[in-house]
Task: inverse folding
């Protein structure tokens, strides 16, 4: 295999979006070193945002690529991964918009924050397309380790330290458990690490219903459920959301979660089709627990960040309905909901950051009477929260409608009814906040709202926050009414993905099968050549019997 | 059974016993410094087992990275945070320990049933043995190129992040222009700075 | 020599790691327990690599990645432990209760 043919087989064009993020990251690191902290805070965030948007544009050109398999089967840039990578890159860009003022205010340096955030983005983007156990593990850890660092970024705040420590310990142990499952997959398949070939070789070894495969499945789900914060792997969520810097929470609740769902779809559909009944059962249990616990516990919260933490657990439960169904409509409703969730959740977090910056608190009771002082913030937060609750003309309503419709079509009636009931519960606690802000009489205003500073958008770092606020507001309110393009995008992403079409049982010669054997044969031929040449000269005792 | 096989079985038995004994010590001993040194013992024994598994390169990497880097790092951390404090004993702490022990024994029973009952597809091919370094290199620059490059980004980031978190902050000299934006505030405001040099009293 | 011996030893090491993870009071010891679990996984991978995949030895590659990333994770973990020790003056897991579990 000479260099030219290797370069062709690597097919590196599919990771151009990630390469752009990587170049941006290096630019931020190096320029911060060269021009110094004061000057770099002025413009590194904008370089990062420009890089992320360029990466989204590059993803647009990846949509119709003929051969999505690259790096000899390591990475699969199919349409589904393109959508997820787009969601992650957009969430990172919005997070940077809202973090500029926040990070400057917290007295920490901005360039390192952005660097670590971009690494997390890079990990998440690779995770969405990884098609091989080693690549899955390395990108998962890139995302996780950067998230631990971001969580503990305001290191002089003991709550942030504590959140980081808990996140790291729970995260590292869940990734160790995930790895044990991965090692079992490697063993059961007799030495395969590519997700698409694992299930075939397990089936041909006659281990399709073995206890080993079920244990591997349970261990792997433990790793995934940690990333998407499904009950009972959710314990870290409220603590980390409360303790860590708010922009980080915004990224974790959207970008990191989307990456987790991308991994869930790819791993469960391609590596575990032999035990699909079992994983659907496990995921159904997790979805039911998440919907019930997330939405019920959210009722009792007094801190806004904790409220959103529990609500995000509940939202993860709703999204998992789409995963369990195993139909076209199920997967595309899941993608659609995640896209809508991106806008509304990030919008809500932008509002919370703005309120926290002006008053220094995030207690729900302190929001009382905000309408009198800041109508724009009240409007944006109300729209985002109502959309999260699923009130009709807003985006969240259509997302939930599509999810529940897909569930009803597939005959998952109990799950859909439970989803409806819990989303009614969720409307209650979202409305409670909105009511608190809007209808209070002037004399019932909370102290922090009474001392509310006048709005001044000219302070450094406030303009990006305003841009983020207004664009999230527009996106959340318009995505509901003009949801058709998003809807088409979600549907196409599922229809164009060979992996899902194959799983749904109507495929015509998937691309993965055509490319894979030639490459791996060539490679293994070469490796055999090397190792037999050397092995001959080995003393007998070195070779195991 | 020929001589080579006998030697292999005996050395495997010794290494496995050493490893499990040291691992139990890591978990159960009261003194954390002993635990850290026993952890080094676990790593060394595992490197020995890797040699039995025809993996000389990984065995060397295990010694260099785990014993040479991770274990030394852990020892440094213990020295930096060593306060010789006795933890307040928990009420009914033994119930939790007993329950965990039962659960762990259950997991072990489950895993060992699985291991024994599964018909593993043992390959009869000759192991790569001494050629393993060449094969590993080939893999790194062909089909595992992507994770190889991504791991370099990850290591760079862990380096930057660990420095950012562990470094002592100095008071920023731009207090003046902080006052200018006093209109904004955060719950995560920096608290009082810890004076430099307090941790060095313990060696 | 059989594959099963290695796998059994790895399973035992994994369970010891889980026990230490749940029961350790000292945050540094929790990190050590995680290292034990990762080493159990590595042993599994190496055993599979030698007995099931002796030519391509993908398990050895996997192990090298796990070792590299475990080192990074340990460094980050200890940096966080140092940061929390500076603020709280303890590494006792039971004392970290500013946030409700």
Result:
């Amino acid at each position: 295999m000479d260099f030219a043919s290797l370069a062709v087989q690597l097919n590196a064009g599919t990771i151009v979006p990630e390469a752009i993020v990587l170049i941006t990251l290096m630019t931020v690191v190096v320029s911060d070193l060269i021009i110094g902290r004061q000057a770099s805070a002025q413009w590194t965030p904008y370089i990062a945002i420009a890089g992320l948007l360029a990466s989204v544009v590059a993803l647009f050109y990846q949509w119709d690529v003929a051969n999505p398999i690259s790096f000899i089967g390591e990475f699969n840039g199919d349409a589904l991964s393109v959508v997820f990578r787009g969601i992650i890159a957009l969430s990172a860009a919005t997070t940077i918009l809202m973090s500029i003022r926040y990070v400057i205010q917290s007295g920490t340096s901005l360039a390192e924050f952005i660097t670590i955030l971009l690494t997390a983005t890079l990990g998440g983007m690779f995770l969405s397309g990884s098609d091989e156990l080693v690549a899955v593990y390395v990108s998962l850890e890139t995302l996780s380790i950067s998230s631990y660092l971001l969580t503990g970024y305001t290191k002089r705040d003991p709550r942030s330290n504590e959140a980081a420590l808990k996140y790291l310990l729970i995260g590292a142990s869940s990734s160790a458990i995930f790895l044990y499952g991965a090692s079992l997959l490697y063993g059961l398949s007799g030495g395969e690490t590519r997700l698409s070939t694992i299930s075939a070789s397990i089936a041909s070894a006659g281990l399709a219903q073995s206890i080993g495969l079920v244990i591997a499945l349970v261990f792997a789900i433990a790793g995934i459920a940690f990333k998407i914060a499904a009950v009972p792997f959710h314990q870290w969520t409220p603590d980390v959301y409360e303790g860590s810097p708010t922009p980080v929470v915004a990224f974790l609740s959207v970008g990191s979660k989307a990456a987790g769902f991308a991994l869930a779809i790819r791993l469960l559909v391609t590596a575990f089709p032999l035990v699909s009944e079992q994983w659907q059962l496990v995921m159904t249990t997790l979805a039911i627990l998440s919907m019930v616990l997330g939405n019920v516990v959210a009722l009792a919260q007094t801190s806004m960040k904790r409220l959103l933490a529990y609500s995000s657990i509940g939202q993860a439960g709703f999204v998992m309905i789409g995963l369990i169904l195993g139909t076209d409509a199920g997967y595309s409703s899941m993608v659609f909901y995640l896209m809508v969730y991106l806008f509304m959740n990030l919008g809500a977090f932008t509002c919370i950051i703005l309120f926290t910056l002006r008053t220094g608190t995030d207690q729900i009771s302190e929001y009382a009477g905000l309408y009198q002082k800041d109508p724009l913030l009240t409007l944006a937060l109300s729209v985002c929260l109502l959309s999260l609750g699923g009130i009709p003309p807003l985006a969240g309503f259509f997302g939930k409608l599509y999810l529940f419709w897909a569930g009803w079509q597939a005959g998952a009636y109990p799950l859909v009814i439970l989803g409806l009931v819990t989303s009614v519960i969720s409307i209650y606690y979202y409305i409670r906040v909105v009511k608190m802000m809007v209808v209070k009489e002037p004399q019932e205003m909370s102290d922090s709202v009474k001392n509310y500073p006048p709005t001044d958008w000219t302070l450094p770092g406030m303009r990006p926050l305003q841009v983020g606020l207004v664009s999230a507001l527009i996106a959340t309110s318009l995505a509901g009414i003009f949801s058709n393009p998003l809807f088409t995008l979600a549907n196409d992403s599922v229809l164009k993905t060979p992996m899902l079409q194959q799983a749904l049982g109507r495929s015509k010669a998937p691309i993965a099968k055509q490319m894979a054997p030639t490459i791996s044969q060539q490679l293994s031929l070469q490796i055999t050549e090397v190792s037999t040449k050397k092995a001959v000269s080995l003393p007998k005792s070195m070779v195991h019997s | 059974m020929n001589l080579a096989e006998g030697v292999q079985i005996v050395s495997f038995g010794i290494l496995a016993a050493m490893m499990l004994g040291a691992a139990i010590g890591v978990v159960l001993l009261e003194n954390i410094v002993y635990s850290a040194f026993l952890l080094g013992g676990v790593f060394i024994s595992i490197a020995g087992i890797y040699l039995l598994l025809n993996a000389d390169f990984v065995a060397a990497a295990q010694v260099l990275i785990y014993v040479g880097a991770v274990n030394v790092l852990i020892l440094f951390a213990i020295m930096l945070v060593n306060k010789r404090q006795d933890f307040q004993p928990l009420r009914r702490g033994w119930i939790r320990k007993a329950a965990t022990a039962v659960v762990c024994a259950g997991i072990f029973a489950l895993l060992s049933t699985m291991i024994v009952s599964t018909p593993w597809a043992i390959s009869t091919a000759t192991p790569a043995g001494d050629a393993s370094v060449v094969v590993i290199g080939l893999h790194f620059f062909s089909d595992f190129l992507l994770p190889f490059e991504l791991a370099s980004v990850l290591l760079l980031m862990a380096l930057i992040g660990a420095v950012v978190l562990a470094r002592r902050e100095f008071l920023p000299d731009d207090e003046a222009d902080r006052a200018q934006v006093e209109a904004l505030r955060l719950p995560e405001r920096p608290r009082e700075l810890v004076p430099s040099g307090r941790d060095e009293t313990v060696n | 020599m059989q594959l099963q011996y290695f796998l059994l030893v790895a399973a035992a090491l994994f369970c010891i790691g889980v026990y230490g993870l749940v029961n350790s009071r000292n945050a540094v010891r929790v990190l050590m327990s995680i290292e034990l679990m990762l080493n159990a996984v590595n042993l599994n991978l190496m055993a599979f690599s030698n007995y099931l995949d002796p030519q391509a030895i993908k398990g050895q590659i996997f192990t090298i990645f796990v070792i590299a990333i475990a080192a990074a994770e340990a460094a980050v973990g200890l940096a966080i432990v140092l940061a929390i020790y500076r603020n709280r003056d303890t590494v006792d897991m039971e004392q970290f209760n500013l946030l409700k579990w």
About this structure: Residues 507-520, 534-545 of chain A have pLDDT under 50 and may be disordered. Chain A touches chain C through 47 residues (CB under 8 Å). Chain A has one domain: 3-542.
